Amino acid sequence: MSLDSLNIVPPNLMSLDDILPQEPLLMMGAGPVPIPARVARANSLVVNHLGGAMAKVIEQVKVMAQYVFQTRSPWVMGVAGPGSAAMEMAAANLIEPGDKVLSISNGFFSNRMALMAERVGADLIELDIEVKSAADPSLVRAAIERHNPKVLTMVHGETSNTVCNIHLKEIASIAKEYGCLVIVDAVCTLSTMPLKMDEWQIDAVITGGQKGLSSIPGVSLLAFSEAAWQRIQERETQVVQWCLDAKLATNFWHNDGYHYTAPVSGIMALHEALKLVCEETLEARFNRHLRCSKALQEGIQSMGLALFVPEASRLNSVIGICIPEGLTATDICHHISHKYRVEIAGSFGQPVVRIGQMGEQCREHNLFRALHAFGSSMRDLGVKVDLPTGMAQLEVYLQKKHQFVL
């Protein structure tokens, strides 16, 4: 049967040049983030996914990832999918039907982890935390003692409401006292703030490429501890998701064999993104992120606007700003994008707009442009702000020498 006989008329298609803005947007939302030139070049490469060159790339990716995850565990692997796919891989492999799972829930993405655990058959217990607060270790201990879960899930940096679970190290230590495995979503915090997988006794850490690492969306990483890998080996039931079966994935990631056709270009991009992190060093990168984030926070508050989360629980890599009365996130995001060519983000149910400070976003020139565009948008939309003072305080903070304890 021909297309003509079906009376299907090809649409009047536009080129990308017709769709995209003439002046590129500065991506300052909650991800994806701008990609360094080296990462973009690597993402244009295609090689045989089962060839010798790919095998060398994979080995280097694993070694560099061990440094970034701060682990000696060899069980590092990638996923052809977003950070959520890595999250689901961790859940699918470490949770069996009927296992009790305690999910610390204080935002959209921590709740997503709970839903994933439930879908693989977990006996789910959710510990709901107030939306602006970090999880309290004493409450977690009480919940573990009450329910005796096999697995605990939590998000290190909850990008949906810009809360950081600052007590992650202590909570993981408590879980270990009770033989509970710990799964952590570190999509926006890996390489932007300290996270020490081995020292903090975390059993699975997942991250996406498109945030802190400044790589492309759609290729992710995760690492399992030796204890987690032992749990995977001892499973009594088969992992339902074939693509996400960690034991099958080792054929490609550890044995130079075939699992499925790997996202070659994305892995090349990830290689260069990790190499940039290693060249900068984690300590320098953490300091850069903390310094730039605090400078931007200072500028926003000096302008007369309020931040959503109290300082003690505030995430550095994504900043949440309370929306002034009478406006919506859509109003603000649309205006700053169309008039000032800066992209920021709304939220998932919270009255905030969010400005990202991850990887390549976290550069001084980006701070000045983003803050000026945001303050100008507020004035355009009828909000009284002191833009000159905000800009001045941003510069004052950046000029000072700061000694951070990481």
Task: Give keywords.
two-stranded parallel ribbon, globular, Aspartate Aminotransferase, domain 2, 15 helices, 43% helix, 13 strands, Aspartate Aminotransferase, domain 1, alpha/beta, 406 residues, 7-stranded mixed beta sheet
Describe this structure in words.
This protein has a 7-stranded mixed β-sheet with strand order 2-10-9-8-5-3-4, sandwiched between helices. Strands 1-12 form a two-stranded parallel ribbon. The protein has a two-stranded antiparallel sheet with strand order 6-7. Helices cover 43% and strands 13% of the residues. It is globular, with a radius of gyration of 22 Å. With 406 residues, it is an alpha/beta fold. The model has no long low-confidence stretch (mean pLDDT 95). The longest helix is centred in the last third of the chain and has 21 residues. It contains 15 helices and 13 strands. It has 2 domains: 126 residues, Alpha-Beta Complex (Aspartate Aminotransferase, domain 1); 237 residues, 3-Layer(aba) Sandwich (Aspartate Aminotransferase, domain 2). Strand 6 and strand 7 form a beta hairpin.
Percent strand: 5-15%
Strand order of the largest sheet: 2-10-9-8-5-3-4
Q: Enumerate the spans where pLDDT stays under 50 for 5 or more consecutive residues.
A: none
Q: What is the CA-based Rg, rounded?
A: 22 Å
Task: Write a brief caption for the model.
43% of the residues lie in helices and 13% in strands.
